[in-house]
Amino acid sequence: xxxxxxxxxxxxxxxxxxxxxxxxxxxxxxxxxxxxxxxxxxxxxxxxxxxxxxxxxxxxxxxxxxxxxxxxxxxxxxxxxxxxxxxxxxxxxxxx
Length: 96
Prior knowledge:
There is one protein chain. By secondary structure, the protein is of the alpha+beta class. The chain contains three helices and four strands, in the order βαββααβ. It is globular and about 35 Å long.
């Protein structure tokens, strides 16, 4: 079964609330086997709108990534990000 990636691009507008989101989301993601590959750090914007925070997490499967997103723990964490950031999030299946 192929693994899957969460790819998120973020503009943080309220650092304190977003930090609470990140703290809570970390546990929810780990509960579904998610591992962070990228969490901020240096980047080079080549095309499109610049989102200065980039996050990539790998999950054991597309189903695990979807289940994590819809889990009560992640949805509770997400409440802290909604008004504290502008985000794009995609879930993509990796090649086998």
